[in-house]
Amino acid sequence: MVAEIERLADPPAVGVAEKAAEVLAAGGLVAIPTETVYGLAADAANGGALARLFKVKGRPRFNPLICHVDSLEMAECLGHFDDRARELAGRFWPGPLTLIVPRRAACPVHPLATAGLPTIGIRMPKGPVRQIIRAFGKPLAAPSANISSRLSPTRAEHVAAQLGGAIDLILDAGPCPVGLESTIISLEPGRAARLLRPGGLSVVDIEAVLGEGLARTGPDASVEAPGMMASHYAPRARLRLDAIAVLPGEALLAFGPDVPPGGPVAVRNLSPAGDLTEAAVNLFSHLAELDAEGVDKIAVMAIPDTPGTLGEAINDRLRRAALDPGVPEASDDRQ
Ligand code: TXA
Ligand code: MG
Question: Can you tell me the distance from the alpha carbon of 55 to that of 237, in angstroms, rounded to the nearest whole number?
Fold first, then answer.
């Protein structure tokens, strides 16, 4: 497969936005131009499309993805906006600013896009891409459209060179005017606004609107992957990896058709057929369901840890979850 390249004018030529929306609705992957960098977009509610997106990027981890919206109304269906969030969105959207806010209970975004987190990253990009989101009518999850660990693309040709053989459509709007990823600000209730990633919007401008300085998370945390701290990933239950039997009192997170002996207190199978894409789709929801059932311990069957496959990302997530058993809700300072 070689992705079709379609020119995206501003405003888009007749039929282009509808065509992109059709590809997205069918679970396809579409490279979109934003003012910052090109993104690789999928329907944020479609777990299968998201699993394919991670696979194509060769990401060794399930980083949470930014959800791109065309309106404040769409944004507020996804996350809780406090006064600060509304002020920043009102002043800087559309533009190179991503807001991390608490996820709404009824948020339609698949947990693979938010990596199972209670928060969600949202931004309204500038340019004709908004017409694509409008035509699709739903948020688009989109990381930068590069292969993992390569540079973010600022031209359609960069996208075609890296991913052209693996995705469905590339929308070409010429070079990205900002050329730098969005600035990411975390707005959690009761906490000072925090800078998670410097980017295309100046921190000074943000601080001027907020009327206060932004908290910095320190050199370690203001990394490329702010959503990747180990503590982001802990379910309450303790995980025992590579289990070949279920011990008394354990729940089972299975993979494949051959379930080990023992009588688990609860079972979820990531993929009875042993399919990694299906396992990726189910990973966060199955862990959340077992947590919701109140289980203390989860035996996790081995999942093939082949580099460059979704198995690598699934194992990364499970190892993080196993490292940190989590803490009770009352004293929970997880972010
Ligand atoms: O300009 C941009 O932001 C581009 C364009 C395509 O929109 N996108 C982009 O996406 O740079 P990506 O996936 O390469 O980087 C998104 C960053 C990741 O480091 C991720 O950890 C963080 O956003 N992120 C997303 N949701 C988060 C959350 N709920 N909490 C903390 N960090 C989050
Ligand atoms: Mg990136």
Answer: 28
